[in-house]
Amino acid sequence: MSRLLILLACLAAPAARAQLPPPPVSAAAWLVFDRGAEAVLASSNAELRREPASLTKMMTAYLVFEAVRDGRLGWQQMVAAPEAVRMVGNEESRMYLRPGDRTPVRVLVEALLIVSANDAAVTLASAVDGDEAAFVARMNAAAARLGMAGTHFNNPSGIPGPTHYTTVGDLLRLTLAFDRDFPQVFDITRAPAFSFRRFQRDATNPLLTRDAAVDGLKTGHTEAAGYNIVISARHRRQGSAGQPRDLIAIVLGAPSKAARSRGVEALLDHAGSAFHLSEVLTAGQPLQRLRVHGSNEGEVALGAERTQRLALPRGTEAELRVTLDEPAPFAPLARGTVLGQIEAVQAGQVLARVPLIALQDASPAAWPLRVFDWLALHVGNLLGRLFHGTAQA
């Protein structure tokens, strides 16, 4: 299981470490995630199934990015709006495409994500797979592939239905998939407005003009779903002297636009005020030294295989606990050899565990020293076992 899936398997666990309780959020489900620590800082009903409304379009966009990456579509490729755009109602968000209108893929994705155009969603689904049914099957296959076990789609736009649902945990998984696979999506979702020919409209995301750190990602609303939002905020500071943080906040089922905005802003503020980001381990930084018997070097430095950052309750730090699985290695010893583990511990709770590795090679010494070290090591082990056995008797 990947590090990301392990962290997401315990969505609510880190909240117990917070000194400050999470803020009251008027919504059915919500969470806030710290990218630097790869951890959910606080959540409520993270796996509760809810109608996503236009947050559905995040998956539609993800599949278009995949199609462009794989060469099945091009950003400047002109695609024709299908007959199905006639079915987009006047009450739905749209860019007023008519059947046969030819529009670049890039423009359609901008309309999809910035102003939530349903006719853009229908047109993109047709461009990727020829018809909506095949595209919806692709959506559900992608959801399964990304580990979105609580998600099922019926359409590419977000039209409500009893089997059209997702969770805040799954939306986090999808957002992190954009981070990993298609970070260029944020070049689109940070735009404050969309215009194409005579059509102009401000972005549906209200935080873009209120918080300079916000670079997306998507809003959604239907009467059945309530007011939904996924927010990405890069290098956000809590106050002028605050630590810059890369955050994701998700709210599903807020009762109003205002409550949605208040809720997501409160979650971002909570992440900045209640937690600080601490680099508890730095890859390649020596933590201690270990004798390597029969080596020219005599001893090698040990350290972390990878850098580990944690979001800790403000005013606290973690302690490191090192465990050696092989306390008396014999040369040769290759750099990167796992010799134990390092744990970051706070109040008796293990917050992170990473391999302890040799940070350098240990080359074999000349044979007289190797023989001497081998004999000393084995005689020492024998005497230790005899002494231990006598002590037990």
Automatic annotation (TrEMBL):
A GO molecular function held by the record: carboxypeptidase activity
Keyword Protease: yes
Record keywords, A-Z: Carboxypeptidase, Cell shape, Cell wall biogenesis/degradation, Hydrolase, Peptidoglycan synthesis, Protease, Signal
Enzyme class: hydrolase
Domain Peptidase S11 D-Ala-D-Ala carboxypeptidase A C-terminal: 275-364
Enzyme Commission no: 3.4.16.4
Pfam families: PBP5_C, Peptidase_S11
Catalysed conversion reaction: Preferential cleavage: (Ac)2-L-Lys-D-Ala-|-D-Ala. Also transpeptidation of peptidyl-alanyl moieties that are N-acyl substituents of D-alanine
Pathway as given in its UniProt record: Cell wall biogenesis; peptidoglycan biosynthesis
Domain of life of the source: Bacteria
Range of residues in the leader sequence: 1-18
Similarity-based family: Belongs to the peptidase S11 family.
Annotated function: Removes C-terminal D-alanyl residues from sugar-peptide cell wall precursors.
PANTHER family: D-ALANYL-D-ALANINE CARBOXYPEPTIDASE, TRAFFICKING PROTEIN PARTICLE COMPLEX SUBUNIT 12
Protein name: serine-type D-Ala-D-Ala carboxypeptidase
